[in-house]
Amino acid sequence: MKKIAIALAAVLGLGISVADAGDKLRIGTEGAYPPFNGIDKAGKAFGFDVDIANALCAEMKVECEIVAPLEWDSILIGLKKKKYDAVVASMSITEERKKAVNFTIPYYSNNLTMVAKKGSGFKPHMLRGKNIGAQRATIAANYVTDSMMGVNAKLYDTQENAYLDLASGRIEVLVSDKLPAYDWLRSDAGQGFEFLGKAIDVNDKIGIAVRKKDNDLREKLNAAIKAIVANGTYAKINEKYFPFSIY
What we know:
By secondary structure, the protein is α/β, with parallel strands linked by helices. Helices cover 35% and strands 28% of the residues. It is built from nine helices and twelve strands.
């Protein structure tokens, strides 16, 4: 098995060079979506996305510059204006976004979920008239506005602000990506809350966004993703944040 993994890694291109693209890769991330990306008290970016970005840069033998925090609503505008070279920010690959940018192969998969106060008695199919929150410009927001009839949709600029309103009671249910919600439920703030119903499978794949003309960079990132999966680097990062595979 070990020999197979080594051979596969060789085929996938360990030690990928992007010297022709320069010796620094600028990676943009939101910085407000823990545990995937956040900003610590020292002002430094952290999280799964940041660790993956650094691992990909190491694999490609380039210096990694993390550009954060960034406004979610304008993160692709900054990419197109060349303020950074790629976006590693837990971004769902959607047909609408593919009109503006190109995506790598997915580097993890996601489902949606609902979160409510413990003992609320709410049912996922009986929320008409309730205040339902989600981060705007996301798959979760689309689900609330397009699939949940008769609810009062409240959309937020960041996931963190949505959590604050859920905790304060200004919204009664939060529709969220399951993985960050899982992390929040384990925090002190999330102790009085729980998942509501089963996960919602929306076939959500998360990729790295690059500019339309940067196909060479996209292909090198694809090769680097495959390489860190093959050599075990991805699994080590995964285990740091989740006790189950999210690939």
